[in-house]
Write a structure and sequence with these properties.
Shape: globular
Radius of gyration: 13 Å
Distance between the termini: 40 Å
Number of strands: 11
Number of helices: 0
Length: 123
């Protein structure tokens, strides 16, 4: 059974930092490109970053480029998202997801999803 479990969310002031962690089990982690998405209530899920399965190439949405850093530790089956210079508009539920394809910005390309972790940025 595949499981993706996010952690590290919380409440932080604007300008602060958080590090999200996604721990994977039940799959060969190296075989999957991994992405981070976020979603606010009543809104569509938004892609923010992806790291490829082989070379670890990274991609970011313009809204987080230069502030967020995605990384992975294949030995630990773990994905990370370092979030710096947080803004109130970054407040969302953050999800990690796995795709067997190359990195994609489309949520339907991802086959496994975590349950999400809440990030709240106060002004």
């Amino acid at each position: 059974q595949v499981q993706l479990v996010e952690s590290g969310g919380g409440l932080v002031q604007a300008g602060g930092s958080l590090r999200l962690t996604c721990t994977a089990s039940g799959l060969t982690f190296d075989d999957y490109s991994m992405g981070w998405f976020r979603q606010a209530p009543g809104k569509e899920r938004e892609w923010i970053s992806c790291i490829s399965r082989s070379r670890g190439n990274t991609y970011y949405d313009d809204s987080v480029k230069g502030r967020f850093t995605i990384s992975r530790d294949n030995a630990k089956n773990t994905l990370y998202l370092q979030m710096n210079s947080l803004k109130p508009e970054d407040t969302d539920i953050y999800y990690c997801a796995a795709t067997y394809d190359y990195c994609s910005t489309k949520s339907h390309s991802y086959v496994y999803w975590g349950q999400g972790t809440q990030v709240t940025v106060s002004s």
